[in-house]
Amino acid sequence: MLAAGLLLALCALPLCPAVLGAARPQLLVERSGSRMLREVGGFSWENCGDGQDPVMLQSLSVAPDPISIPGTLRISAAVSSSKAMASPLKAVLVVEKALGDLWIQLPCIDQLGSCTYDDVCTILDNLIPPGTPCPEPLLTYGIPCHCPFKAGSYSLPASDFAVPDVELPSWMTNGKYRVRAVVSNKGQELACIKLGFSLQSQ
User: Fold this and answer.
1) How far apart are CA 168 and CA 13, in angstroms?
2) pLDDT reported for residue 30
3) Do 132 and 121 touch, CB atoms closer than 8 A?
4) Rounded Cα–Cα distance for residues 38 and 46 (Å)
5) Within the chain, what is the greatest distance between any pair of CA atoms?
6) Of the candidates 89, 82, 85, 87, which has an alpha carbon nearest to the alpha carbon of residue 152?
7) Between the chain's N and C termini, which has fewer beta carbons within 10 Å?
8) What are the pLDDT digits (tens) for 19-68?
9) Could you count the other beta carbons within 10 Å of the beta carbon of residue 60?
10) Is residue 201 predicted with pLDDT exceeding 80?
11) Do 107 and 115 meet the contact criterion of CB atoms below 8 Å apart?
């Protein structure tokens, strides 16, 4: 599940391959102050479910802040899950960008932004064909990269990931962002995570 969580965070940015089948919500605006994370202006995270979700993020660290594209991203994370999770794992992302004292919800364009992914398991299979070993450092630390995900605890020590030199859409450039990701299976919420971060492209 840790691999799926990392994938969701990267898909909120233009850092994962485009996938098919995402919904395209309209552009929304809201005033600053509601649904704020604990750290404004820097990297922050929190579980946003009702406390009963079977999947909980225990820790997450991302450096540098702001995230630089291209560059190297150092991530450490720990996730616990009280139940096994199998396909389909639906993921709904809401991505917002700060504009003055407003937060603007970014639409889903070319599978980037506030998108709905019908099955994260299928995305993982497309990125890493079944039967092939999980990429490093997931393989070293025994973190699965395919569904189903067994119940248990998964931990990723500080590891470096290369962020490619991608062409950013004009609406997803330098600035402050916040993301809400909800993962569910057949209507049952499994996890809810909020992230706040800054993005710096070169």
Assistant:
1) 9
2) 38
3) no
4) 8
5) 48
6) 82
7) C
8) 222 333 333 333 333 333 333 347 899 999 888 899 999 999 988 888 88
9) 21
10) no
11) no
**DSSP category for residue 79:** E
Alpha-carbon distance values, 42 to 174, 184, 195 (Å): 14, 28, 10
Q: How far apart are CA 95 and CA 165, in angstroms?
A: 21
Query: Per-residue pLDDT averaged across 187-200, rounded?
Result: 92
pLDDT the model gives residue 161: 87
One-letter-per-residue 3-state SS of 8-51: HHHHHCCCCCCCCCCCCCCCEEEECCCCCCCCCCCCEEEECCCC
Rounded CA gap, 199 and 30, in Å?
20
- The residue with greater pLDDT, 74 or 169, is 74
Give the whole-angstrom CA distance, residue 103 versus residue 145: 33
Phi, psi of 65 (to 5 degrees): -130, 110
| Other Cβ atoms within 10 Å of 61 Cβ, number | 14
Write out the two tokens for 101.
């004292």
Q: How many helices (H) and strands (E) does the chain have?
A: 2, 11
- CA neighbours within 13 Å on the CB side: how many for 137? 15
| DSSP label at residue 85 | B
